Amino acid sequence: MKLSRTNKILSKMKEQGISQALVSDPYSIFYLTGFLENPGERFFAVLLDENGDHKLFLNILFPLDKDLGLDIVSISDTDDIISIVADHIKAGTKLGIDKIFPARFLLPLMDKLPDNKFVDVSLLVDTTRMLKDEEEKELMRISSELNDRACQFVIDNITETTSEKDMVKKLLAYYEEIGVEGTSFPPIIAYGDNGANPHGLPGDRLPKPGESIIVDIGGIKDKYCSDMTRTVFFKQPTPEDKEVFEIVLEAVKRGTELVKPGVRLCDIDAACRDYITEKGYGEYFTHRTGHQIGLEDHEYGDVSSTNEMVCEPGMIFSIEPGIYLPGRMGVRIEDLVLVTEDGVEVLNKLNKEFVVIGED
């Protein structure tokens, strides 16, 4: 067990009178134990106990070759799993359950333990994961540095005969070459009007002179995700296209400059959104400004107009405003930022200024 992380959650549980909690999110289990498994339909959970008597319920199908520092309760497909789990729950107490705990296990467990009160402890876990420790910060820096390299690779290798799907294939091969373990989300490489869809799917399009090219990619290194976006132009962009780009770039800078402890996340969103609106493109900025990231590309918390949570040291989130002109083009620029003790550290170092590629 990673005791410093576990103890933070236990302290929050104590404040709410929760003596035990079942955590079933595989990424939260990894966060607490260093063991990551995809259980599929099988039961998989850590039982956190106020007295330190923690358990991992693990199907014998999944091999475990290291000591995790907690008791392992081995289960099999033919066991009465609900009865086994119930035997480890203190009767009549408040029992925490996380937000993804499967109903096929939760409902029978509630029937088995009618005197227990079941409560959602997701926020206790998620807000702990939100504040990265020093080990996590360094892993996020490394993951983002590799993603910078990959993004530059994509930009350098787009030609007039390279389709969006071809470029995705080249990216995946390059990720493997530099030691990235997988993608944190399906890569978005979108030319021209395909970029007007913020989640445009790569297709057979070839870049045309004057088109914008959105490169939104993320990889996984040592279990931690990266995520970034750069927009470049293929040959002769129009003055208006360059103006749209510069508006988005300035919005990114304004949002980033605001980041420091105590600043509300909604105010960072407003710094980006209000500037784009002031320039006449507010209706074309159609999504929130950012999201938290770590073991998963999208973790609890976001940078949106409704989130009044304040920045705290250790938070890592994206700042990614965009302008999307239907049938024509899209521009998005995205960096990951780390809230420090007195300000901000931008994890992505790759140039985000105006760039034109494909010119002779």
Concise overview:
The chain is built from nine helices and 20 strands. The protein has 360 residues and is α+β, with helices and mostly antiparallel strands.
Spell out the key features of this protein:
alpha+beta, Creatine Amidinohydrolase, Chain A, domain 1, Creatine Amidinohydrolase, 6-stranded mixed beta sheet, 4-stranded mixed beta sheet, 20 strands
Question: How would you describe this structure to a colleague?
Answer:
The protein is α+β, with helices and mostly antiparallel strands. It has 2 domains: 127 residues, Creatine Amidinohydrolase, Chain A, domain 1, CATH 3.40.350; 227 residues, Creatine Amidinohydrolase, CATH 3.90.230. 33% of the residues lie in helices and 23% in strands. The protein is built from 9 helices and 20 strands. It has a 6-stranded mixed β-sheet. A hairpin with a 4-residue loop joins β18 and β19. The longest helix has 24 residues. It is elongated. 41% of the residues are buried. The model has no long low-confidence stretch (mean pLDDT 97). It comes from Gemella bergeri ATCC 700627. InterPro entries: Creatin/AminoP/Spt16_N, Creatinase/aminopeptidase-like, Creatinase_N, Pept_M24, Peptidase_M24B. Pfam families: Creatinase_N (PF01321), Peptidase_M24 (PF00557).
